[in-house]
Amino acid sequence: MTNKKKQLKNPKDNLTNLGKDIVNEIGKGKDPTVTFQTRALSNVTFDKKARTLVLGNSMSARSFFNVAHAKKFLQTMEVAAVAKNLLKEGKHASLRDVFYQVKRTIPGTKVNIVDDQPESDAVIEDLELITGASREQININANKNGSVAGKVVIKDRGDVIDWSKLGSGGWSVPSNVEEIEFKKVDAKFVLYMEKAAVWERLHEDKFWEKHNCIIMASQGQTTRGVRRLLQRLHTENKLPIYVLADFDPWGFYIYSVIKFGSISLAHLAGETAIPGVKFLGITADDIEKYGLQKHLITFKEADKNRLKQIEKYDWFVDNKPWQRQFTMMKKMGAKAEIQALSARGISFISEKYLPEKIKNKDLID
Predict the structure, then answer these.
(1) Per DSSP, what are the bridge partners of residue 58?
(2) Which strands make up the sheet holding 171-172, listed edge to edge?
(3) Cα–Cα distances in Å, from 162 out to 140, 159, 182, 183, 213?
(4) Residue 214, C-beta contacts closer than 8 angstroms, at least 6 positions apart
(5) Which of 49, 193, 204, 236 could anchor a disulfide with 244, C-beta 3.0 to 4.6 Å?
């Protein structure tokens, strides 16, 4: 039986150890089994001291001779073999690449090892728990989805890259940022925004240069690469992280994931969560202060339901500033996008809104 206690430090050794355990169990006539922490909401708790989500001690078992487990067991072994080969060859693969490498028919049957990519994606996340190595550490990457600019010089696989000299598109944040070496970081803080369009406005206005900061964005929910890069900038370079998101339940959740971690990736909270991050806007107070009432978007039923869920999260329920925002949002029955600030002028956000909020430390923890 393999479990988290048997992990080694090197990801390749972790995978080798997994294979050896399975072979040993077969050699002893036992039912080959892997065990790992259960990835489910019921096994996720909020650590108030660490201020992050953590995975509990409930365990799941996957046995070859159990009819209900057999296919998942085979999928796990197949994905583990792909990861082992990637590490051996020093190559990287996308989630889609892995899916196609394991998508084939089991000999003598009409059953595929996997039918759709979500199956192999889920197994990869299970493998993180089984081996103690993140997806990126076993050379499996997701698609790029993020941009960054600022007075920062990095070294990435031998290439020296200056984030301040990459034109209108900035540097494209990769899925795997573990091998990046910070050579020079000249910034007072990092400003992350949920929308690429807002990043483009700030980049064109050279906000990062005028205010000596780093600007970063993805599109919607943050990717693991972006979250990990934010965490590294925060922990290794002691930079404050500010999140600029919409005044809506979805924007609040994006902030929540960056700060506390996500339920689905609670096992990686130590590598992705940033408890010290602060929310910069948009808030109910901003709507009043900057006269954005005419630019609100009326709530739909999905918005109401999402807000009800979020306000009951353990990490929000006792937070008075956040509960105040939730209450004001419910009274408005509406939400507001960051781009609503454009009604005050195309560069209002970079020339007045953000400078004022940062100077006044108008932040929510």
Answers:
(1) none
(2) 171-172, 147-149, 214-217, 190-193, 241-244, 278-281
(3) 26, 10, 10, 10, 14
(4) 148, 149, 150, 151, 152, 163, 187, 189, 190, 191, 208, 233, 239
(5) 193
**Residue that wins the pLDDT comparison between 258 and 143:** 258
Residue type, 277: V
301 vs 154: CA distance, rounded Å: 45
Instruction: Please give the C-alpha separations between residue 221 and each of 47, 250, 252, in angstroms, as whole numbers.
Output: 23, 9, 11
**224/174 Cα distance (integer angstroms):** 9
Query: In the chain, where does the domain assigned CATH 1.10.10.10 lie?
Result: 4-141
The residue with tokens 């009604």 is: 343
Query: How far does the chain reach from its first CA to its final CA, in angstroms?
Result: 43
Q: What is the pLDDT of residues 203-225, one digit of tens each?
A: 999 999 999 999 999 877 788 89
Nearest of 280, 281, 263, 261 to residue 272 by alpha carbon: 261
Q: Is 235 exposed, middle or buried (0-12, 13-18, 19+ CB in 10 A)?
A: exposed
Residues of the chain with CATH 3.40.1360.10: 147-359
Q: What is the pTM of this model?
A: 0.85
CB 75 within 8 A of CB 103: no
pLDDT tens for each residue of 101-150: 999 998 888 889 999 999 999 999 999 988 888 888 899 988 777 999 99
Q: Rounded to 10 degrees, what is the CA torsion of 334, 336, 337, 339?
A: 140
> Domain 4-141 is in which class?
mainly alpha
- How many residues in the chain? 365
* 147-359: in CATH 3.30.1050.10: no
Would you name the residues annotated as active-site residues? 100
Residue range 280-292, pLDDT digits in tens: 989 999 999 999 9
CB-CB contact of 63 with 35 (8 Å): no
Q: What is the predicted pLDDT for the residue at 3?
A: 44
d(CA 51, CA 253): 15
Sequence-distant (6+) residues with CB within 8 A of 266 are: 39, 44, 53, 54, 55
Q: What percent of the chain has pLDDT over 70?
A: 97
